[in-house]
TrEMBL record:
InterPro entries: RbsD-like_sf, RbsD/FucU_mutarotase, RbsD_FucU. One of its GO terms (biological process) is fucose metabolic process. It comes from the Bacteria. This is Fucose-binding protein. GO terms for molecular function: D-ribose pyranase activity; fucose binding; L-fucose mutarotase activity. It holds the Pfam family RbsD_FucU. It catalyses: beta-D-ribopyranose = beta-D-ribofuranose; alpha-L-fucose = beta-L-fucose. Keywords: Isomerase.
């Protein structure tokens, strides 16, 4: 264990998050997402795991160390439900609450059509799969910056 780090963050995930640069994206996915196949096409090229936790719990852990990009561009996306793109299922509501908590204000997610999500995921830096079993528990996050203390 390390002080001040969420215990859900394992060494492989921490290394990937630290290696990412401003504007890089990462996927946090449910158990139904083709995580391994997609992960092989990402920059990292291998699948990362935060097992046995919900998507919201994994997002909470990741956002405890990862800055989201500025509000000038969308920084948190969700996979849209096919045939009901504006519907927000419980798993996405829970993740939205974690995003808002991490940001200290409302930071609405944008929707990404299911097949477009797969294509965007292939361009990501990495994919982190979770133990989430509910459908549409798939999210895309863009890394922001941490400004200097005197900025």
């Amino acid at each position: 264990m390390l002080k001040n780090l969420d215990p859900a963050l394992n060494a492989d995930v921490l290394h990937a998050l630290r290696s990412m640069g401003h504007g890089d994206t990462l996927v946090i996915s449910d158990t139904n997402f083709p995580s391994d196949a997609i992960a092989r096409q990402t920059t990292l090229g291998k699948l990362l795991r935060i097992d046995n936790v919900s998507a919201a719990r994994a997002v909470k852990a990741v956002l405890s160390v990862l800055p989201l990009d500025t509000p000038l561009q969308p920084s948190a996306g969700r996979m849209e439900i096919m045939g009901a793109p504006t519907e927000i299922p419980g798993v996405q509501q829970e993740v939205q609450a974690e995003i808002d908590r991490a940001e200290g204000k409302p930071a609405p997610m944008y929707g990404i059509e299911r097949f477009a999500f797969y294509e965007e995921a292939k361009k990501a830096y990495c994919v982190i799969t979770t133990g989430e079993t509910r459908f549409y528990g798939c999210f895309l996050f863009t890394k922001g910056v941490i400004p200097p203390e005197n900025a």
